[in-house]
TrEMBL record:
Residues 295-579 form the Aldehyde oxidase/xanthine dehydrogenase second molybdopterin binding domain. This is Xanthine dehydrogenase, molybdopterin binding subunit. PANTHER family: ALDEHYDE OXIDASE 1-RELATED (PTHR11908:SF132), XANTHINE DEHYDROGENASE (PTHR11908). Residues 654-709 are annotated as: Disordered. GO terms for molecular function: 2 iron, 2 sulfur cluster binding; iron ion binding; molybdenum ion binding; oxidoreductase activity. Belongs to the xanthine dehydrogenase family. SUPFAM superfamilies: Molybdenum cofactor-binding domain (SSF56003). The lineage of its organism: Bacteria, Pseudomonadati, Pseudomonadota, Gammaproteobacteria, Pseudomonadales. It comes from Pseudomonas savastanoi pv. glycinea str. race 4. Keywords: 2Fe-2S, Iron, Iron-sulfur, Metal-binding, Molybdenum, Oxidoreductase. Signal peptide: none annotated. The keyword Oxidoreductase applies. Its cofactor is Mo-molybdopterin; FAD; [2Fe-2S] cluster; Mo-molybdopterin cytosine dinucleotide. It holds the Pfam family MoCoBD_2. Residues 33-268 form the Aldehyde oxidase/xanthine dehydrogenase first molybdopterin binding domain.
Length: 709
């Protein structure tokens, strides 16, 4: 197949590509119309604000780098249909698209998805291409067909996290509290929309993060460039919106000479007032203040802030930074119709249970959690439950496993099916043994019926002999949510998940290298279904988020070809990038007030945004070069090259301030956002020490820990 592809002769003409999102924005080169959230009169608020700042920010994309690349296998069946084995987060869409390309009804196509070797959003839509190609070849040849992309092919062909360009105009008072803001969020969608409509929407929904914006206008633009169509990635646009407002918080703090955390807390949503978002959803069950206070104390934020200032004052090369940032992330598909799920449960006469649901397992522990839910309903051991592959001829019309909804939707659907079967068994047992239904109790693999105790398997056998159906479907749809796009207002999210991270870093200002020294995380998961899984998700989410904002840089040439198409040039976080000290705690005794699965909360995407604290901590370290008087010129990702450039810019600004004779008053200029030094410009890298990194010689580091790591 590869030889045949190489033999193909393609005639084409080179045209001038649009590769820059800023150029696309200025030319209004869009794949879809722009959208606006508006509350109040932001222009008037800005005109009358005590202080006003303007700036811009570039936020890079991110490669999914799932361990298993895109892969599909298709087998023709005797009835003219196809069985599709595909690594996908969205089996129903694969079923629909394969049926379309073959010109057959959907009932001729069965998609079987046992597990993925990672997804992160990259297999929500983009798994369709290999599946459809295999289906066409299988139809033409009558033979089973399989396609697997090599790593470099996968990286070059598939979409990434949307890069964003941000422009902001913000007004605030002497305490740093926002009075008005205008934000323009321009997403680089690539050549076609894919999921860009909803992704840019979610970026807009999360442009507030944890903060009451005051009078606000938020514009979302879906820019068209001549690159692969970008797609879903963990957080689905939310992280880009949050990075934008965290940049604003830091900028305000530098301008006022305040601790960034103080500015953040001054802008937190309140519980009874200042608690309505710019899209008119009320922020209920707000844990921001309590969680921040808890993390401040447990991480010793105030003491470490003073210690870091002392360290930086005595260290001209190595600089430490500290940041504590919050997370408020909305849970639900923003496309409301997707908030539904189904499940299927069979109880066999030996008491074993077969479970199938519409979610897909990609290593996040979904199957374990859903099995736990069913085991809890029947009060049996989880070993009794067998979950089979996600299959479109068992549970049809499924929503994708995305938007952190896997357990919320499929767990509730499975719970619904299990409760239906349990009620049938209760009614049968009460009738068979002539007792009240209230006297039937499931406990520890047995069933108490009045004074009689039966093993669960025995009751299942009796019920079957009593002609009771031991099979049931389950269904769930998320309540309360709606969004009127024409009015740009509603309740798009069922609830919010909260979190906070405190990160300390050390930066070598001669090389731009940095190291995370310590990370403290407090995260809200409601009543955790499985703390081990949830902590693992928090760990992985934080590291993946920090990687996006630090080491993971995508580079295209002037023809639009991706140059970082493998692990040699695209750097995901490795063991050496982990914090030397990582402390994670789940919020205790805080059930989700909404009627979710046993009052738990989603944990897939929210921890990703905890990584923003690492980016802010790096900027904090660089800001110390200018006595915290200027906002560092560091776009995301903050690669060592960009950090080094930011250090040089900070030194120039600091020197200019001293030369001008300005004392304590801050001189604030909008970040220039130059991502890398110009060719031929002087670089302090030439003066970098030879041998061991300065980071390894940093005073105050526990070198025994460093060696162990």
């Amino acid at each position: 197949a590869r030889q045949a592809a190489m033999a193909a002769i393609i005639e084409y003409e080179d045209l001038e590509p649009v590769l820059d999102v800023v150029q696309a924005l200025r030319q209004k080169h869009f794949v879809l119309d722009s959208h606006t959230h508006k509350r109040g009169d932001s222009a008037a608020a800005l005109a009358g604000a005590t202080h006003r700042l303007q700036g811009n920010l570039h936020i890079g994309g991110q490669e999914h780098f799932y361990l298993e690349t895109q892969i599909s296998s298709v087998m023709p069946t005797e009835d003219g249909g196809m069985i599709v084995y595909c690594s996908t987060q969205n089996p129903t869409e694969i079923q629909k698209l394969v049926a379309e390309v073959l010109g057959v009804p959907m009932n001729r196509i069965v998609v079987d998805m046992r597990r993925m070797g990672g997804g992160f959003g990259g297999k929500e839509t983009q798994a369709a291409s290999p599946a459809c190609l295999c289906a066409v070849i299988a139809r033409l040849t009558g033979q089973p067909t399989k396609m697997r992309l090599q790593r470099f092919e996968d990286m070059q062909m598939t979409g990434k996290r949307h890069p964003f360009y941000i422009e902001y105009d913000v007004g605030f008072d002497d305490e740093g509290r926002l009075q008005g803001i205008e934000l323009d969020l321009a997403g680089n969608c690539g050549y076609s929309p894919d999921l860009s409509a909803s992704i840019v929407d979610r970026a807009m929904f999360h442009a507030d993060n944890a903060y009451y914006l005051g009078e606000a206008t938020v514009n979302g633009h879906r820019c068209k460039t001549h690159t692969a169509s970008n797609t879903a990635y963990r957080g689905f646009g939310g992280p880009q919106g949050m990075v934008a407002i965290e940049e604003v918080m830091d900028y305000i703090a530098r301008f006022l000479g305040k601790d960034p955390l103080a500015v953040r807390k001054a802008n937190y949503y309140g519980k009874t007032e200042r608690n309505v978002t710019h899209y008119y959803q009320t922020v209920e069950h707000n844990l921001l203040e309590e969680m921040t206070a808890d993390l401040e104390q447990s991480s010793q934020y105030a003491e470490r802030r003073e210690a870091i200032r002392t360290f930086n004052a005595g260290s001209s090369i190595l600089k430490k930074g500290l940041a504590l940032t919050p997370v408020k992330f909305g849970i639900s598909f923003t496309a409301s119709f997707l908030n539904q799920a189904g499940a299927l449960i069979h109880i066999y006469t030996d008491g074993s249970i077969h479970l199938n649901h519409g979610g897909t397992e990609m290593g996040q522990g979904l199957n374990t959690k859903v099995a736990q839910v069913v085991a809890e309903v029947f009060q049996v051991d989880i070993d009794r439950i067998q979950i089979t592959a996600t299959n479109t001829d068992k549970v049809p019309n499924t929503s994708p496993t995305a938007a952190s909804s896997g357990t919320d939707l499929n767990g509730k659907a499975a719970q619904n099916a299990a409760e239906t079967l349990k009620q049938r068994l209760v009614e049968f047992a009460a009738r068979h043994y002539q007792v009240a239904e209230t006297e039937v109790e499931f406990r520890n693999g047995h069933v108490r019926i009045g004074d009689i105790f039966l093993p669960f398997a025995e009751l299942a056998q009796l019920a079957w002999m009593g002609q009771v159906s031991l099979s049931s479907t389950g269904y769930y749809k998320t309540p309360k949510i709606f969004y009127d796009r024409s009015q740009a207002r509603g309740r798009p999210f069922y609830y919010y998940a909260f979190g906070a991270a405190c990160v300390e870093v050390i930066v070598d200002t001669l090389t731009g290298e940095y190291k995370m020294l310590r990370t403290d995380i407090l995260h809200d998961v409601g009543a955790s279904l499985n703390p081990a899984i949830d902590i693992g998700q928090v760990e992985g989410g934080y590291i993946q988020g920090a990687g996006w904002l630090t080491t993971e840089e995508l580079v295209w040439n002037d023809k639009g070809k991706l140059m970082t198409s493998g692990p040699a040039s695209y750097k995901i976080p490795a063991v050496a990038d982990m914090p030397l000290d990582l402390r994670i705690k789940l919020v205790e005794n805080r059930k989700n007030p909404e009627d979710t699965v046993f009052h738990s909360k989603a944990v897939g995407e929210p921890p990703f945004m905890l990584g923003i604290a690492a980016w802010c901590a790096i900027k904090d370290a660089v800001a110390s070069l200018g006595d915290y008087r200027h906002q560092p010129d560091i776009d995301a990702p903050a690669t060592p090259e960009k950090v080094l450039w930011g250090c040089e810019q900070m030194r120039h600004k600091s020197a200019a301030r001293r030369a001008s004779g300005e004392g304590a008053e801050p001189i604030v200029s909008a970040p220039s956002r130059v991502s890398e030094a110009s060719p031929g410009s002087p670089s302090p890298i030439q003066d970098a020490p030879v041998g061991a990194s300065l980071l390894e010689k940093a005073p105050g580091l526990d070198h025994s820990v460093l060696e162990q790591k």
